[in-house]
Recover the amino acids of this structure.
């Protein structure tokens, strides 16, 4: 506990320093990190090689999967991607220091609301060698101090990457405490108790892991639980468009949170749509599970869906299909069984689309496009911290803005509240100001 | 449990309806509530009379304080204030439906981020007869459904007020489930477990109560723990201004969260400032507790501060004074002992002020004005949900905006993600749009 406490305290005191850096200072440091990584690519690959050797043994023992082994590998082209990603974060607009509200309360009494970093952020992330530099860069750009804990499979890669980043930023005049690496799982358990020192936790990983974190800390958690995504094919859908979109949303990459799980099909077009759609799915080895009406139309080309299928997140080549009587039933199903992540309607009817979009309570509601677009990069937010399923602070694909909050600055000339109270009270002018804080 | 669960479910399904109301519909309903309350003022006063009679007995038994008794009283002038407050909420800008980001991802593929209600909000509030109508009006204006639990001392007043509001809104075509009244403490305990149905809890009341709520629910909490406020009197302060501001911040109303608790006085001006300041405090029966240097200057006019005084929230006629060597010591003290609520610097030195404002990590940082200005109404936000000491979502004085989040709307024409991936990938245009969603 004492070790992680001292790391958290060091991060907190460095946070005040890093929160006062200029945009130029931060960008210079980010570019320096990128250069440092590129200069040390051979040593990085060597460190990664140690992780890969351990992972190979673990794969043989059946302790980790082949997929994790492949994700772990850091070669020159992946390092180049990381370098480019850091440079692109440097080129993004500074999310900190923006005036979002300015008002004169009275003569010479001016109020400004200015975006600011959150403070100390704890990030627990998966075993991917590009995760650490991405998270560190996002935190630096948003002037937050960061406590990092990566997957143990990437231990050597992370340790070396961390030392490169720390070295590059220290040489850029950034207090070294701003970035801290946690070594053990026990440190994560301790971290969850440090609500006096840590302002936000960002867990990345499986749903059960994110839920575990949420259930075991008083620190706010910015996370993503499930992505149960629906596509509703309306009676006035262009069926070719619908089939293209459903295929893309299911098979382009079924392992991701914005892949579709359930199709809701309007009764009027079910007999025309289902045979072709199911055939396409079958050709791509997608298992289709249907409601009784779907079964009636498709026979044994489709398995019978159980109650558990409505609201299931498959992350696999499986899709559930339900025939609905009308758009209201579809909306109700999505709001009841979904996870408020990403849901789509396919229709040529403007009014139906508007109804669906207004009434579906999800972070992203999509009309005539694939659910797979719901992603920070595709949404033009630059790098992504994650896709939040929270309903406060940050919702949906979350970029740098999700790592900021704001401060109120009030600049007076001796005003006191007593003068604005009671019988002869002075009145507030509350006149909007077209000025920014600096 | 079943009763509160059915209330929460009813609120959730009403939320979808209320989230689609137009600004005009909401404002019409708000004005109807105001009229209804004014028309029924005699019956309201009568319901309140029942609460007052119970409270009188409780005061005699020593169960509740005189202060609570007085706060409970609802007379015609207080009812008029409530009516005006509701009408002023009707006149505020609609916080929902504002486009805050619009970008073309590609031709005929447009993304909009639009402010939206959070969903179902649970509010637990103190025994003041104006709390229920204020909270209900803020939730209606921001299109949230609301579960309300008021202090039991105001039971009859709240019950009658609730029936007036429900009646007025139902007559305005708003689904009656949108507002629910909880009757017992047990229902609050159950409410804390309903994280599948309730999106946000707003507890109002004592620090210990807010902390209890935070520690006992997985639902996000928008609350205010402590307000430990500092004023730093810099070596280049205008001492007359400083004394006026310190007096105002302490004695105008010491029972509130933005009253000052600790003065930090620069060593250079301590001998000049302290004798006059302490004399003023003594004249207003403010107990002064000083650090060793303060004691050295002031002798027994000042009590000795203990370690517990640094970081104490007094809510009373008590102030602690510490002499500091320089601005850095002051900033460090505020960040270490404060509660990140509201802190001020008094100085004529622009550079010192900027340093203090940048480096003090508080929701409101004030230069040459009283800490007491930190308040939603004074900040021009209209009605206030509360002052948040959270560092995510909403920070500082929180108005209607704190009851909103956003949704992404993506409008396409059949686009799929596969076309934007791989070798011949289409490029995103990511061209900002000067359009709003409607």
């Amino acid at each position: 506990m004492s070790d992680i406490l001292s790391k958290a305290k060091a991060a907190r005191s460095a946070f005040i320093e890093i929160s006062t850096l200029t945009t130029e200072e931060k960008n210079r440091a980010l570019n320096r990190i990128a250069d440092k990584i590129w200069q040390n690519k051979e040593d990085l690959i060597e460190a990664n090689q140690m992780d890969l050797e351990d992972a190979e043994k673990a794969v043989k023992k059946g302790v980790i999967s082949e997929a994790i082994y492949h994700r772990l590998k850091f070669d020159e082209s992946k390092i180049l991607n990381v370098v480019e990603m850091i440079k692109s974060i440097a080129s993004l607009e500074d999310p900190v220091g923006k005036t979002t509200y300015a008002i004169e309360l009275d003569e010479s009494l001016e109020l400004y609301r200015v975006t600011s970093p959150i403070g100390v952020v704890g990030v627990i992330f998966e075993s991917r060698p590009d995760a650490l530099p991405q998270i560190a860069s996002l935190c630096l750009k948003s002037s937050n101090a960061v406590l990092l804990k990566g997957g143990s499979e990437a231990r050597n890669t992370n340790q070396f990457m961390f030392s490169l980043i720390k070295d590059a930023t220290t040489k850029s005049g950034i207090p070294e405490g701003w970035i801290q690496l946690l070594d053990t799982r026990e440190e994560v358990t301790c971290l969850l108790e440090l609500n006096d020192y840590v302002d936000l936790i960002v867990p990345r990983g499986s749903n059960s892991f994110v839920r575990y974190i949420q259930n075991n800390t008083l620190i706010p958690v910015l996370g993503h639980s499930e992505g149960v995504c629906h596509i509703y094919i309306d009676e006035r859908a262009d069926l070719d468009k619908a089939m293209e979109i459903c295929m893309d949303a299911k098979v382009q990459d079924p392992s991701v949170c914005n892949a579709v799980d359930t199709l809701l099909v309007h009764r009027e077009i079910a007999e025309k749509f289902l045979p072709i759609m199911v055939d396409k799915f079958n050709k791509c080895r997608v298992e289709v599970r249907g409601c009784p009406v779907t079964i009636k139309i498709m026979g044994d080309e489709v398995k019978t869906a159980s109650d558990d299928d409505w609201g299931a997140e498959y992350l696999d080549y499986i899709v559930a299909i339900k025939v609905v009587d009308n758009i209201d039933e579809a909306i109700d199903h999505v709001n009841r069984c979904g996870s408020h992540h990403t849901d789509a309607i396919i229709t040529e009817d403007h009014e139906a689309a508007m109804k669906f979009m207004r009434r579906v309570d999800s972070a992203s509601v999509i009309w005539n496009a694939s659910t797979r677009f719901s992603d920070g990069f595709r949404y033009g937010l630059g790098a992504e911290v994650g896709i939040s399923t929270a309903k406060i602070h940050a919702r949906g694909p979350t970029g740098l803005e999700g790592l900021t909050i704001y401060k109120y600055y009030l600049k007076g000339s001796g005003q006191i509240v007593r003068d604005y109270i009671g019988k002869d009270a002075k009145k507030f002018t509350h006149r909007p100001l077209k000025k920014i804080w600096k």
User: Anything to note?
Assistant: The longest strand of chain A covers residues 404-415. Chain A has a mean pLDDT of 95. Chain A touches chain B through 72 residues (CB under 8 Å). The radius of gyration of chain A is 25 Å.
